[in-house]
């Protein structure tokens, strides 16, 4: 006969008298609390006025946010509830319960300070000799914005709606001036309908103005590129004494394109192609990852769907780090970053680039895996030298680190930490939130890398 433990919910259960006894020594929450409380939070503390009732300590609120992002709890309301339901959150909150407004305000107010804390955590990793930070991988991933693609309004559709609404306003004005009001549908308020359409026309006008401003900025950028190409073509013709081949560059247009659009919920987000097919309202999140520890060295968010223009900005962010973190020897990146300018930018920064020129076949001949390429000529270009290096056995072995470092980081952030959509809106806020996500990842990773670590989230 089966034997079971009795179900008795009326017995009194007492927690240990000290909050220190609630969690094991190796728990992730303890590690996060210890690291955050060791950081210099002076920049945040100085922004408190010191008036009114005592505020929650920034280290406590920061620990709650980081542990929340590390364990898939992002909403300030859910974090507040977790301070009641979860032993780990209760430990971090010191058995207090900051309300969701306090947590949300802290996240928005001090977002700019997250980058300084991010660097301090990397300095702790450096001091603990977790890595030499010599080889780094660069990649990007699309993360959904806090906006629907169905809230996007294209320039052509805005013009159509504007025309339609103006016609409807004229019809309603004619009805209002009509002497015979018997034809009006029951419940129709002409002034209210006119006011509603005028509000819509105002919103459409603002959306069109934003699209036109973007088109103007794009024209100025493309015009500079057009003039540079035209000048290079003229110099080539003057040098050779004959007309250069090929079609001349096409001058850009200052007018907005019909497909140019703006999102009415989050204007800074963009329609981007996502993995698996289809298009969504997204941001392009970038990360430079150390291949030895899988720690993120530099996080960034861009509105550009293409990665090709992100090498130089990411190199600048890495070089702005403190000594020992700012001078990797090698940069690994996939074919989306390949260009002559990007190769040259890496060389000028003193970094060896290993950027794939294109996709390789999945089943190469076995001889290719063990053969070395022919020697390069002495006058080979930097791009040719890089392509040659990638064909060598040492180059293949080095480039293979890219797929097993930066891509798993994105996979864990999305699948394990469950961060697939930004909560905040606007480019600056989204950048701060991505820094918070990468900070949570780094601490989660450092907790695993510490000696005799046992991860219990």
Would you kindly provide a written description of the structure presented here, covering whatever features stand out?
The chain has helices at residues 28-38, 42-45, 58-70, 76-85, 87-92, 100-109, 114-127, 155-177, 190-240, 311-319, 340-348, 366-370, 382-391, 393-403, 406-415, 427-449, and strands spanning 135-144, 152-154, 261-263, 270-273, 279-290, 296-302, 330-333, 352-355. The chain has 457 residues and is α/β, with parallel strands linked by helices. The chain has three domains: 19-109, no CATH class; 131-148 and 266-429, Nucleotidyltransferase, domain 5, CATH 3.30.420; 152-178 and 186-263, no CATH class. Strands 1, 4, 5, 6, 7 and 8 form a six-stranded mixed sheet that branches. It has a two-stranded antiparallel ribbon with strand order 2-3. The longest helix has 51 residues, at 190-240. The model is unreliable at 452-457 (pLDDT under 50).
Quaternary organisation: single chain
SSE series: HHHHHHHEEHHEEEEHEHEHHHHH
- Count of alpha and pi helical runs: 16
- Which value, in Å, is the CA radius of gyration? 29 Å
Record field, number of beta strands: 8
- Principal-axis shape equals flat
The biggest sheet amounts to: 6 strands, mixed
Mean pLDDT: 88
CATH C-level of the largest domain = Alpha Beta
- Overall structural class, as computed from helix and strand content, comes to alpha/beta
* Beta-strand fraction estimate: 5-15%
How widely separated are the two ends?
38 Å
The assigned CATH architecture of the largest domain is 2-Layer Sandwich
Helix proportion range: 40-55%
User: What ranges have pLDDT less than 50 throughout 5 or more consecutive residues?
Assistant: 452-457
CATH topology of the largest domain: the name is Nucleotidyltransferase, domain 5
**Total separate domains:** 3
């Amino acid at each position: 006969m089966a034997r079971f433990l009795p179900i008795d919910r009326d017995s009194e259960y007492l927690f240990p008298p000290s909050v220190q006894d609630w969690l094991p020594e190796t728990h992730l929450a303890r590690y996060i609390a210890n690291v955050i409380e060791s950081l210099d939070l002076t920049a945040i503390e100085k922004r408190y006025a010191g008036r009114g009732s005592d505020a929650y300590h920034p280290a406590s609120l920061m620990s709650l946010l980081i542990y929340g992002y590390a364990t898939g709890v992002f909403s300030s309301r859910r974090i507040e509830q977790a301070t009641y339901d979860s032993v780990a959150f209760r430990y971090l909150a010191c058995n207090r319960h900051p309300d969701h407004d306090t947590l949300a305000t802290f996240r928005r107010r001090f977002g700019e300070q997250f980058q300084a804390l991010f660097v301090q955590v990397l300095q702790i990793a450096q001091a603990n000799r977790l890595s030499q930070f010599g080889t780094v991988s660069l990649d990007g991933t699309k993360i959904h914005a806090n906006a629907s693609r169905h809230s996007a309004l294209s320039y052509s559709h805005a013009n159509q709606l504007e025309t339609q609404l103006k016609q409807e306003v004229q019809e309603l004005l004619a009805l209002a001036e009509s002497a015979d009001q018997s034809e009006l549908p029951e419940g129709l308020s002409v002034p209210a309908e006119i006011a509603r359409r005028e509000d819509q026309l105002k919103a459409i006008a603002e959306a069109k103005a934003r699209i036109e401003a973007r088109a103007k900025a794009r024209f100025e950028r493309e015009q500079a590129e057009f003039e540079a190409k035209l000048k290079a073509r003229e110099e080539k013709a003057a040098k050779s004494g004959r007309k250069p081949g090929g079609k001349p560059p096409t001058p850009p247009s200052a007018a907005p394109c019909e497909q140019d659009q703006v999102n009415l919920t989050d204007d800074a987000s963009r329609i981007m192609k996502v993995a698996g097919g289809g298009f969504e309202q997204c941001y392009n999140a970038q990360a430079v990852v150390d291949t030895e520890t899988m720690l993120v060295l530099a996080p960034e968010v861009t509105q550009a769907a293409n990665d090709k223009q992100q090498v130089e900005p990411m190199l600048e962010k890495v070089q702005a780090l403190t000594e020992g973190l700012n001078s990797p020897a090698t940069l690994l990146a996939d074919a989306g970053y390949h260009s002559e300018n990007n190769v040259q930018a890496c060389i000028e920064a003193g970094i060896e680039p290993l950027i794939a020129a294109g996709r390789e076949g999945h089943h190469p001949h076995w001889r290719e895996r063990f053969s070395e390429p022919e020697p390069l000529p002495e006058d080979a270009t930097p791009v040719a030298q890089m392509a040659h290096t990638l064909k060598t056995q040492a180059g293949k072995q080095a480039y293979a680190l890219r797929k097993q470092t930066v891509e798993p980081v994105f996979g864990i952030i999305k699948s394990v930490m469950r961060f697939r959509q930004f909560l905040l809106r606007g480019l600056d806020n989204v950048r701060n939130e991505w820094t918070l996500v990468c900070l949570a990842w780094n601490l989660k990773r450092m907790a695993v890398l510490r000696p005799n670590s046992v991860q219990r989230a």
